């Protein structure tokens, strides 16, 4: 039975994403779920050999990339993303029996969640203090432990812990979607499907135009960049690491050529994987089949070309 | 006496940055400091006419751009950055008299600060719960109010509130620097100094290569991009707003030409200002004086060119 | 009465082009036509102050650029193109009275003309030797002087010299068009019409990518290059001078910016003029009026942009 | 015994180039030399199966590309360049015994040669008429046949025909070099040497920026373009065919990728061959060995990269 870590404890959206992966048949066999206290912690369980895979959130349509996940993927032994799934995210405000919204003084929330309900809280709980929980499920546990009056959490956590929902569907932005990825040790990528995503991390040499040249490797080859995130490398103001997603698969010639070119010209490149995209955005890179066949004929000296 | 808002309350690093602006003679007259509860709140005080300017943090060498500041600059009536200053940031752990590190169960912290002392806390206060405060100074106030046992805060806040420093110089990363900016209503930019920064926000039309083309407007003109941050526009997964800083001033011809070109080709561009850079990074754009003079001669029909 | 040189003697296509300029009202007053023995000779008459202008062929749709004209424009004191006209070119085979095609052993031809009737000659005069004349009209004169049996020439030359047309409308390629230009000393360019041509000569520094960068100055600014000719600089194998035509006028902002940029980055640039195009090819460069106005407002500090 | 055509008749520089190929051991066996009346004629002898190869001039450091050769390579069944050699070219003025320079009224010259001695002729033979010969050797034959008084020709032709040299080393430009190529039917290219030349013909779709995009395929991959010639396609003013030489070999990955990309994006591309360059100009394309190996490891899922 494969052991799969997730950013827990039980009741987080990440556990729901893991369940979604299970329903979709991503795993060959039933999995043993292993809760980890942070995104980085879940990924480190793969590196230590404790689990075979881990599910972590990677991007929110509201808050953008999940820094903790990106940083953990960029640093330390290389891991590989092999699948993704998306969840529409809205929150449930949980409290113990008998508590009403008017009673809430201390509200437990995971900061990423807190940021997505800020407006709702300022309207409905203007006097509440925000208490930092380690995850959406941990926020519910903080209520059970008496450390907070209510929690910004998930319906699933409420059910598990027997808490009451003071409000549900809470979200400042409609259609807040979070993307989760399944990460493993480096392996052969899942086969190309024609609607794939490839992800890399670039650290560029500090010459003028180096970013421009890196982007040109994609643009010239007709490859669509769908995500560009910069994060400081923490080695000084003004030095960045770039997280790039493009449409396509490492087995697509155009993508392979761009990766090789970046390996040669960019300061440092880390490949994070190629996998089927759930929501198709962007245009697949052009096929080079005709060109490859033409090249073979040219090299053979075939006349009629 | 000009009224200048800052992300407060009194005792934040932002207030220290405001003091630094005052010492540097940025203001003509003594200023009245007005604390605001958030970065966005400080900026809105300019928009409402309550203050003439506001000081807000914009970028940390550890955490990257301050999202709340960027988002508030990108949305709503346009404001303009007119000056910057930098602070080396490390934290002081404050508590009431008699409290020791071993006593700390509930630790108040502003999330940006919490992220920068995470390792220190897990080593020195492994059992402490993190309590979300609204700012570094507010964390100290949460201790005074009895809502937390200790605070991740500033020495200044400790002095003001009479708290004890359990630890000082606390920071997971050496040389953590935060850049703060002085923002006003749109105005004539301060004169070019030869070491300036210009900042814009771009929302690009969703065509392949549009980002590449936008970058080419800078690269072709020899303009150095020093910061590229993408943030979701919150209108759906995969649509981004780009925050770009370049070396140079709106009165430099190369920068002016790039801005005009982006105004024509990019979906939406917002100019956030040109101002003297404190730490020089990158190369100033090339002068076009010789070329401009040559062009004038050509247009006049001068022969010997 | 302005004196205008042309590539003669009387009876050349170039004289017909000069007549076309006269009919079109290009000159304010009747002109005195001055025949010159070569394209370079006609241009040198401007440089020596003997004439005010000169008409020379610059490009053939069959043979490409006229090297002698281009080289003479690129070297020596700068001159300026101020107008263009086009002629559909076909040749008349001229001979003395009584001569038939079967009698022709020695055929006089200007080499550019010879190249355009090569197929016709090999079919109709397979045994004729080709005699090099200095121009199309000079070929007819060579017949009159008894140096050749027949001439590849123009109907006009036949009329002037009383020769018989053995064949007319002779051309290997349909719709062979030659473009002629009116050249003067450097002067203020004729006003922009919205359908203009600008011409430059570039000598690039011998670094990899320098040509690419030069082209990017046009492409980035949306300027259409309509002619790219390379000619050896005669200083060694592999060093070239580039003759570029683009759509637009030196008074168009985009063109002016590209010229200034090339002045700064390219090894050497010579401006050959901006003038109305007779046959519109390509798209005019984008207007920057909206952007220029926006920039003025930004610099003034206007709020609502 | 392989039959090799050359642009003749006997005594041309092209025959000297063929001799140079023979001395260099390009052929396995002694060759039978077959004179052809023109460059296109020599190439057509390959197409008709009459000869196995042909030697033709392709570029002069003074006059630029030899149009007749380029056009014949671009049109009709594809041929392939497999070797090159270079000759320093200066001319010999040949005449019959007893003739002096003062006696020369009619001077036979191949037009390409005539263009390279124009200044010399105007100084030394100001009254001579130029007679068009079909090649440098044919000019000497025109003297022998009494059709001209003297010839712009080669020393070799003088020896063969027993003519006297009135002047030798005649050339308006020092170091006039002509490059000749050996052409065959399409075949496997000679092995890469690390200092190779690859030649292609491009006909671009008539969209703005198409030339720029074509060049970007080379520039992005670090491939040096060493020759760019445009020639009208003869289908109308303003439509061109581009002849491009780059440093590198079809077996170099970068070159192969650029060719494939152009096959996909350019209107029409014809490959003219890859062969060892005699005079090294430009930098070889970057090797992708390290990148290719890295890619293989990535695809296998190797961890430590």
Automatic annotation (TrEMBL), chains A, B, C, D:
Q: Which SUPFAM superfamilies match?
A: ACT-like, Periplasmic binding protein-like II
Write out the catalysed reaction. prephenate + H(+) = 3-phenylpyruvate + CO2 + H2O
Sorted UniProt keywords = Amino-acid biosynthesis, Aromatic amino acid biosynthesis, Lyase, Phenylalanine biosynthesis
Pathway named in the protein's UniProt entry: Amino-acid biosynthesis; L-phenylalanine biosynthesis; phenylpyruvate from prephenate: step 1/1
Please verify whether the record's keywords include Iron. no
Q: Which residues form the ACT domain?
A: 199-276
Q: Which residues form the Prephenate dehydratase domain?
A: 3-185
Catalytic activity, EC:
4.2.1.51
For this UniProt entry, the molecular function terms from Gene Ontology, in alphabetical order, are: prephenate dehydratase activity
Which Pfam families does the protein's record reference? ACT, PDT
EC main group: lyase
This chain's protein is named Prephenate dehydratase
Q: What organism is the protein native to?
A: Nocardia aurea
Q: Which gene encodes it?
A: pheA
């Amino acid at each position: 039975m494969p052991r799969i870590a997730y950013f827990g404890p039980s009741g987080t959206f990440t556990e729901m994403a893991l369940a979604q992966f299970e329903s979709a048949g991503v795993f060959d066999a039933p999995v043993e779920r292993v809760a980890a206290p942070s995104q980085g912690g879940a990924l480190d369980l793969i590196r230590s050999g404790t689990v075979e895979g881990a599910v972590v959130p990677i991007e929110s349509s509201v808050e953008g990339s999940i820094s903790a996940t990106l940083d953990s993927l960029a640093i330390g032994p290389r891991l590989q993303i092999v699948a993704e799934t998306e969840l529409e995210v809205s929150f449930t405000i949980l409290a113990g029996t008998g508590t009403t919204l008017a009673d809430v003084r201390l509200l437990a929330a995971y900061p990423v969640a807190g940021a997505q309900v800020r407006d709702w809280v300022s309207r409905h709980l203007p006097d509440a203090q925000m208490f930092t929980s380690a995850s959406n499920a941990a926020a519910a546990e903080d209520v059970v432990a008496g450390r907070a009056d209510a929690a910004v959490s998930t319906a699933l956590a409420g059910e598990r812990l027997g808490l009451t929902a003071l409000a549900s569907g809470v979200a400042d932005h409609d259609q807040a979607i979070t993307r989760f990825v399944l990460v493993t040790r480096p392996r052969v990528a899942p086969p190309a499907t024609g609607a794939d995503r490839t992800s890399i991390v670039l650290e560029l040499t500090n010459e003028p135009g180096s970013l421009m040249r890196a982007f040109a490797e994609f643009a010239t080859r007709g490859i669509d960049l769908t995500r560009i995130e910069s994060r400081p490398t923490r080695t000084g103001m003004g030095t960045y690491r770039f997280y790039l997603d493009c449409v396509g698969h490492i087995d697509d010639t155009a993508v392979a050529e761009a990766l090789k070119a970046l390996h040669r010209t960019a300061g440092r490149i880390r490949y994070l994987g190629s996998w089927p995209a759930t929501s198709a955005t962007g245009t697949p890179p052009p096929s080079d089949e005709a060109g490859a066949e033409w090249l073979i004929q040219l090299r053979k000296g075939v006349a009629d070309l």
